[in-house]
Amino acid sequence: MNIFLVLTFSGVALGAIYFLAASGLSLIYGLMDVLNFAHGLFMTLGAYAGYEIATRLPSSLGAPTLVILAIIGATVVGALAAGVTELILIRPLYGKPISQILITIGLDLAGVGLLMGGFGSTALQIPVPLWLIEPTHIGGLYLPNASFLAIGAGVLVLIGLEMFLALTRYGIIIRAGVENREMVRALGIDVGRAFTLVFVIGGAMAGLAGILYTIVFSGDLVSPNQGDSLLIFAFIVVVIGGLGSIRGSAVAALAVGLLQQYTSFYIGGHSGWAQIGDLSTVLLLAVVLEWRPRGLFGRVA
Amino acid sequence: MRWPSRRAGLLVGAIVLGLFIVLPFIGLHVPWVLPGTLDIVNSTGTLEVLALCFMFAGVAVGYDMMFGYTGLMSLGPVLYFAVGTYVFDIALTHWGWSLFPSLLVTFGVSLVLAVVLGAIALRVHGIAFAMVTLAFAQAFYFLVESNPHNLTGGDTGLSLSYTRMPSFLSGAVSNTRNLYWVALAFLVVAYLIVWLVTESVTGHVFVAIRENELRLDVLGVRPYRFKLVSFVVSSLIATGGGIVYILVIGTAVPSVVASTTVTLSILIMVVLGGAGTRWGAVVGAMVYVYLQQYLDKVGAEPTFTRLPAVLRVPLSEPQFLLGAIFVLFVFFAPGGIAGLVVRRRFRRASAATLLSAFQGLRKGGGG
Fold it and tell me: Which pTM does this prediction carry?
C-alpha cells in the first residue's frame, strides 16, 4: 500500500510536468492551429538556461537562491524564445498551418543542433540544494521534496491560467478565439496580439517544465534532446485531453503520469517489459481515440 | 498541369538513371564534391553514401504520395521503415530464414500493421492524425528499445547475419557495388509504383482528398478507403527502404532507424524537394542525405577546426545547418527545389500557358 501511495505521488508530480508542457501546446493549437514542434526546444532551452544560471552565478548566493533563480530564468528564457519565434517565424506565415508546423520542425532541429554544438551531447549536471534531493517523512511515507516542487508549480499554473482565461480581457479574447477565431476578428479585435501572448505563455510554461523535469525526474541532468522526448508525451496528453482544452490537458496529464508510474513499476520489472510505462501511454491514447475521437474534453467541430 | 517539357523531364530522368547505373565502373576523381577519402566516385564509401541517397529517395517518394498527393501528414513513416529493418533482420539473424521467406514475412507484418494502425489513425483528421501516427511510431521505438525476448538487441542494436544470404549480397563491404544497384533498383521500383498510382484514377481521388475532402464525401466517394490505400502503399514502400537500409548498413540501432528523427528527415526531404511532384522528393532526399554526410565530413577537416568558435560551432553541426536551410526554404521557397524550377519555367512561359496554368491553380486551390 505504501508503495502504491508513493507511486501515486510521483505520478501526480510527473502529471504536473506533463500539464505544464501540454497546456501551452494545447492553447497554441486551439487558437492558431499550429502544432508547435519547437516546444521541445523551448523546454530544452529552459533547462540549459537554468544550468547556466546555477553554474555561472557565484555559489556564495547559496544553493536555494540559485535554484529559485534558475527556475525563474528558465521560465523567462522559454517565454522570450517563444515570443521571438512567434514574431519572426510564425507571424509571416499566418493562414498556412502546414508551413508553420514545418517551420517549427526546422527551428527545433536547428536549435537542438546548436545546443549540441555549444554544450556537447553529454548530459550536464545542475547543482541543487540538498533538501531537493532528500525526501520528507509523512505518515510512514518518504516523499521526494522535488516532487512537491513540481506539484506546487503545476497547481499554481493551473489556477493562474484558469483565472487569467476567465477574468482578464486578453484571457477572454483567447478563449473566444479558440471557440471561433473569425468571429473575434470580425468584431474588430486584434487577434494577432493574442497569438503572440499565447506563444509567450506557452513558452514560459515550456521553460518551467524543462527545468522542473531536469530537477525532479532526470537526476538534475540537462541534455540537448530531453525536450524532444518530453514533447512526445506532451503531444499524447494534448490529444487525449482534447486539442485546445486546458482542463482536458490537466486531466489527461494526470492520467498519463499516473498510468506511466504504475505500469512501469508493477509490470516494467519483468524482463523485456522495461518500456511498458512509455508504451502504456500510447495504448491509452489509442483506447481514448476509439472511444472519443476528439479527446476527453474536445469540442465538437 | 501538364508542362510542354514533360518529355524533356523523362529524358533527363533516363539519362541520370543511366549514369547512376554505370557509375560503379567509373573511377573518376572529384576533389571538391566529395570530401576526404570519398573523392573517388566509385570508392566503397561513395557508393555507400549514394546507396543511402537512393534508399531515402525511394522512401521519400512513397511519403510524397501520402503527404504531397493525398494531403495526409503522417508523422509515423519511421514505424514501417523500422519494421522493414528489424523484422527482416530478425528473420535472417535469429530465425535463420533465407532471403525470400524473410522478405515475405517482413512485408506481411508491415501490411498488417499498416492496415490496422492506419485504420485507427485515420479515424481522426489533420493534426490529430499526425500526432496519433507519431505516437504509434514512438510505441514501436519503445518496443524495440525494451528488447523483448532478446530479439532486437535493445540500445546496442542488432547486426545482420549474412550466413543465409545469397553470396552476391553478403557482406556490406565486399559487395558494396551490388548493394548500390539493389538500392537503385528499389528507388526505381518505388518511383514506378508511385507514378502508376498517382497517375491512375485512384491517384486523382488522392488529390481530390487533399484539395477538398468534404466535397468528395458529398459526391458519394468515401475518402476513408482511399486514404487507407495511400497510407498502406506508402508504408510498404517505407518497409522496402528499411530492408535496403539493413542490407547496406548491416546493423540496426533504435536511435538511428526507429526514432522520430527519421520521420522528420523524410518529411524535410519531401518538402525540401517540393511536395506533390514525385521527382522533387527524389531530389530532396538525395540533396539531404548528401549534405548530411558531406557536412559531417567537412566539420572534421583541419582547416575547419581553426575557425573561431562563433563560426565553428554552428557550421560543424549538420543538424543545425540542415534545420536552418529547411527553415529558409519553407520561408522563401515553399514549393521546394521543384517549385524553384517550375517558377523559372513560369517566367519563360508564354502568356497563354501562364493563363491556363493559373486557371488550373485556381480550380485546384480550394483547400
Answer: 0.88
